[in-house]
Amino acid sequence: MPSSAGYLAGAFVAALALFFGLWWMLISGGDEAPWIPAGLAASVVLLVALSAREVVMRRAWTKYLLEQGGDSSLRSSGEHKRSSSAKMRTSSVLSSTSRVIQTRSEEADAGSSVESHFDVFQLCQEYLATADDALKSNNLLADKRVAIKAGQERVRALQRHHLLTWARNSSRSLTYEAQQRSRTSDKIEAANRALHCLQSALKFYPEETDLNESSVAIREFIASVKVAHWVELAERSAFKGHYRRAIERYKDALFYLNRETLKDEIRIPGAERIAREIESLQSRLKDRKNGNNERPTS
Q: Is the CA virtual torsion 199, 201, 202, 207 positive or negative?
């Protein structure tokens, strides 16, 4: 594991250097209390460094336990003891990691952070991969194999629960964000991020009906945003008397309406309305060519 003392010492030195650097610059600039902003800046650096280490080391520690774990007292220099100590290390690491996962699972369910569910899912993936490797070896006793398989079943259930919870909550939050955005590009970007969350979960659990239904709903939302965007542009062009441009933009709206996966009860009435608008604009163009410059009212 990386040295905690070295990391903290480096962070402290960086914060101290920033403090004295800002303090000197502020003194040169004639600031009356240079130590206040310098101290705040140094404190922010320390807080960011500690927070970043906590996030990174939380995953690194679990991965270390899974890949390298075990008590050093279990290791033996004799060849005849290595197989036995390996068995004990594998069982011990899997058992301790299972307890870590259970604790993190309870914290994620009790907390409000969506990403904490994804963190637990990743821990479950690492545990299951290590357990599979252990079961492939011939060094485990029968009772250990039974215990590891039972642990796998429990972890698989937690993996499913937390991945689905993450996908549902993330997609719901991003969909709400998309609905609140004013720009079309921002709406589509947030909706695509929500769709990506659902698709990530569907790769593991493609049979989940609610995830599939949510994916369809988000695709329909994206399609409706695109169609509404081109319809709005067409209406603006028609209001300004740019009938040809309006017709082209209505055709763009019709293109997205027919290309995207929309329900018939949404697509058919929308296509009929756009077709009527195009026909009306073509009639206006014809009247204009015939010398009738009066703009008909709708």
A: negative
Tokens of 126: 């690492």
**Inter-residue contact 166 to 152 (CB < 8 Å):** no
In single-letter form, the type of residue at position 16 comes to L
Could you report the per-residue pLDDT of 169-199, keeping only the tens digit for each? 999 999 999 999 888 989 999 999 999 999 9
pLDDT of residue 90: 66
List CB contacts of 210: < 8 A, sequence separation 6 or more. 168
Taking phi over 0 as left and psi of -120 to 50 as alpha, with beta for the rest, 82 belongs to alpha
Distance from C-alpha of 278 to C-alpha of 36, rounded to nearest angstrom: 66
What's at 161, amino acid-wise? H
pLDDT at 30 over 50: yes
For the segment 55-105, what is each residue's pLDDT rounded down to a tens digit?
676 666 555 544 544 443 333 334 444 444 445 556 677 888 888 999 999
Decide: helix, strand or coil at residue 237.
Answer: helix
Helices (H) then strands (E): counts for the chain: 9, 0
Amino acid at 116: S
| Tokens 């403090």 sit on residue | 19
Please state, in angstroms and as integers, the Cα–Cα distance from residue 268 to each residue in 57, 138, 215, 263, following that order: 55, 63, 21, 8
| HEC secondary structure over 94-119 | HHHHHHHHHHHHHHHHHCCCCHHHHH
Q: Angle at Cα 244 formed by Cα 256 and Cα 284, nearest 5°?
A: 115
Question: How far is the first Cα of the chain from the last one, in angstroms, to the nearest whole number?
Answer: 74
What is the C-alpha separation between 134 and 95, in angstroms, rounded? Answer: 13
